[in-house]
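Many introductory courses stop at the sequence. We go one step further.
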Amino acid sequence: MLELTLGKLGLSDKESKVYLAALELGAAPVQKIAEKAKINRPTTYVILESLSKKGLATTFIQGKKTLFTAEPPERLKLLLDKMEQDINEKKEELVEAMPQLKAIFNLASNKPKVKFYEGWEGIRALNDEDYDRMQPNSWSYAFNDLDYLFKVFPDRYSRDIDRRVQKNIGVKVIYTRSDGPIEKDSDPTKKREARFVPKDKFPFCGTMTINPGKEVIIYDYEGKVGGVLIEDADIANFFKAVWDLAWEGAGKYSK
């Protein structure tokens, strides 16, 4: 128990054993202290020198013998004082380094932030967050596999449309579907424009939503099911340019 207490004050396991042995024996030669601490003599000698530097042991000559004695336990407070001094010095060093650390952090904050969502529950959580993050009076752009969308969100599709319309968010979608285009795929009352592309020619089986200047959300419905959120304005704008190109190309299938 005492060894654990001394350990918390910064003494090593062997330092604690030697100090306690010397404390119990009083003035004693290295050999006796070593036997009491159950540590070999050369190591005990080195440890006693270490304790002396910490102010916890002293050496004196008695006749022809060199004896060692432990300093009173009150001296242990010196260890706490030293620890407190070290902590204060480290605090000062941290304060001095903080401006540089913050500068590095600010540079890192410009890097894309990527979050991963695993499994079907992760996909549903990401879908909920997607609608919560959308800015009112804005537009989103998407690639969609409607076969999977209706399968994954059968109970949410209408609700999600209502949430989007309430925030006055428009959506433009390039979509595939095994049974071909749906009736009235574009619907101004729901702020939705859509263009169909044949699934046999473009067999993507997921969803990508692009919020320009902000983020890209990708859902994977096959293999390792899950979603990815990439928060980066430049990446979002790049994918929006790719989407624009695909939108023009999809026009020939929607005539």
